[in-house]
Structures are given as C-alpha cells and as structure tokens.
Amino acid sequence: MSYMERIEKDLTSAMREKDELRLSVLRMVKSALMYKQVEKKRALDDMESLQVLQTLVKQRRESVDQFTKGGRKDLADKETKEIAIIEGYMPVAPSDAEIQSAVEEAIAAEGADSLKQMGAVVKAARARLEGKNVDGKALSDKVRERLTAKS
Question: Most exposed of 2, 92, 99, 129 (fewest Cβ within 10 Å)?
Fold first, then answer.
C-alpha cells in the first residue's frame, strides 16, 4: 500500500473518530504529497513520498525550536505531536551502529581521507542506508567527525 493510500485510509478513520489533530495533520500531509505529484506530473514512488514526509518533519522541528525560543510552549507541544503523527508513516531510523557502519563502508569505498571528499562519502553512506529514515544533518555530522579524526 502506497503512502497516499495509507494516508487516505487513515484520514477517513480520523474523520470517523473525530480526532481533530490527526485529521488536520493527515490533510496537510496529503496536500503536500498531492502538490509534489502535480509538480512531478506523475504518481510519486515510495522514496519520493518519504522525502516529502522527511521535509515536513524537518519543518516542524525547526518550528519547535523557534516556538521554544519564543516562549510559546503550547505551540511547540502541538508541533511535537504533529511530528509524532507524521513519523508514524516513516520507516524506523537506523541505529547509531548502523550509521557508523555505513559511514565506515562509504569512507573505505570512496577512499576518502579528508573533508574535501565529504560530499561523496555522505552520498555513499546515504545510499547504503536507503529505505530508512536518515537524518541528513546527523549523518553529515558523523561523516565530518570521522574524516577530521582521520586527518
């Protein structure tokens, strides 16, 4: 079942249950997926849908930071609940050991020994972790940390 089908099914059940927060989040997710579909002029595959969900989660995390800095705990809590709902549709995140292993394999495969090759290493590590919910910033931080330790 595609992301869109799952979201539409859950949207219907949220309407029946009168779960307002879940309903609004699922409508927003569906809207974002439909927008991307129209932009691409074709149906999205699972990886493209996952990227849209990751973008939505990233936007909400940034909002949580802003609301926390602004002293709006109520809005930060709402955004955190939205993140939890969206993450329910995403695959599990890889463990630190899996990320470290992918980074090591990527460094070995690319023959990287300096920060100049960081982009290639991040790309190779991301390919090894494909299908998992990878935080790009955390991955690039691990690669940077590993390459600076190597130099």
Answer: 92
Residue 96 has φ and ψ, to the nearest 5°, of -60, -40
> Of the CATH numbers 2.60.40, 1.10.10, 1.20.1250, 3.40.50, which one belongs to the domain with range 96-150?
1.10.10
Q: 22 vs 108, which has greater pLDDT? A: 22
Please state the separation of Cα 29 from the chain's center in Å. Answer: 13
The span from the CA of 8 to the CA of 46, in Å, is 15
Looking at residue 150, its pLDDT comes to: 62
